[in-house]
Amino acid sequence: MRTAHQYRLRLTKQQQFTIDMWIELCRRQYNYRLGERFNWWEQNRCDINSCPLICHLPELKDRPDLYSQKRDLVNTKQLLSEYKEIPSHTLQDVIARVEKTFDRWLKGDSNGKRSGKPRFKGQGRYRSIAFPDPVKPEHIKGNLIQLPKIGNLKVILHRPIPDGFKVKTAAIVKKADGYYITLSLQDSSIPELTPEVPTLDNTIGIDLGLKSFLVYDSGEEVVIPQHYRKLERRLKKIQRSLSRKKKGSKRRKKAIKRVAKAHLKVSNQRKDFHYKTAKKLLSIGKNIGHENLNIKSIARTRMAKSTHDAGWGQFLQILSVKAANAGLMTIAVNPNGTTQECSSCGQKVPKTIQDRWHECQCGCSLDRDHNAAKVIKHRAVGHLVRKAQEAARALEVSSSKKRDKTMPDGIPGVTEKPALYASA
Fold first, then answer.
1. In this structure, is residue 253 part of a structural domain?
2. pLDDT tens, N- to C-terminus, the chain (424 residues)
3. Which of 49, 176, 382, 396 is the most exposed place for a label (fewest CB within 10 A)?
4. Quick one: 67 and 180 in the same domain?
């Protein structure tokens, strides 16, 4: 089992100066290595629609990859002595970040989805450094944790490290309100739980919305907190104050920090609400069906502010991770027509966005979101049943094709059947 705990750091002024310097040097190294890859890409590519039949390209350069750029760190340390103070694995992690973001742009991730073109990190845009080496148990003493080339750091252990877990990696993150350390913990002795096959008895449906954050298929509602809208007046005031400050002045830096802290507070409140809501959902002990929403498209409409304030994407991500740890499933279903379909008889009941009550000829009368949650529950169970049937059908087709490629007496290599079996 793999999990992560984040703790606040109490650093001395010297430690803060050292970490800030390391973050800045890693930012410059990130931009330099990303620039190397962009130069290779620009000098070696040739558009198909504008390439002549006879093309005289300069000698192609070797593509900078993960290992070649790691080997070049030796030259970096010889030219710039300040890089010798940074742990080697921390610098190698910077190269790994460049490799990951560049490959996701050109090749895409495991699902084939490509990201946008990587951007160079400006000042303040690179906020974390990693220590990939495992932290040994003897390096954690009380509220002190020892990291290479920086010494003991004071940590506020608001929750203890679980027994049996080993600290695999550590990362220091700089936020608007201070420094934090994230410990990646692993315990191989904890087995992964296998979820049960979803049925109507062990599955619940939830409908995400903006009137209520979510509605259970039982009719219970979770009120949407609207953290950003509640702090909007405060944000407007301090952002207006920021716009009046002279660029480059100390007062402007202080105003920027006030704005950053206000936004961080909203983010922390929203994340805390998402974790508590996910825990309440999973405490029921049932699989959860939800809509497979296209959140990016919804966030481009006039409901953008409310959609971002609700944070559906972050909530569903937290819910899926916590459900997997609890041995449960989150099932994403097609959202088309969930509010129009009757949960009792399945008939389509047209509604506009203003119609908040579902009334069907079959006698089903309930709230619009309550009805949608019930439809989502039925779709979640039926979705997996159809997937299992399709998988079984595909397996049967593949096995029949294998049988067709063999003779009746078991001799392989013959693709056509004899006349005796043609009519069978």
1. no
2. 888 999 999 999 999 999 999 999 999 999 999 999 999 888 777 665 666 555 555 566 788 999 999 999 999 999 999 999 999 999 999 999 999 999 999 888 877 888 899 999 998 899 999 999 999 989 999 899 999 999 999 999 999 998 889 999 999 999 999 999 999 999 887 777 777 778 888 899 999 999 999 999 998 999 999 999 999 999 999 999 999 999 999 999 999 999 999 999 999 999 999 999 999 999 998 999 999 999 989 999 999 999 999 999 999 999 999 999 888 999 999 999 888 889 888 888 888 888 889 888 888 889 989 999 999 999 998 866 566 566 666 667 666 666 665 545 444 444 443 333 333 3
3. 49
4. yes
The pTM of the full predicted model, rounded to 2 decimals, is 0.82
Q: Note down the domain range covering 356.
A: 203-223+272-383
The total domain count for the chain is 2
Please tell me whether residues 161 and 22 are part of one structural domain: yes
Q: Which residues on adjacent β-strands are paired with residue 167?
A: 135, 185
Whether 118 is covered by a domain: the verdict is yes
Q: Tell me which amino acid residue 166 is.
A: K
Q: Are 360 and 343 in contact (CB under 8 A)?
A: no
Q: Which residue has the tokens 């450094």?
A: 129
Sign, CA dihedral 195-198-204-206, equals positive
Co-location of 51 and 18 in the same domain: yes
Distance, C-alpha 86 to centroid of its chain: 29
The number of beta carbons lying within 10 Å of the beta carbon of residue 139 is 15
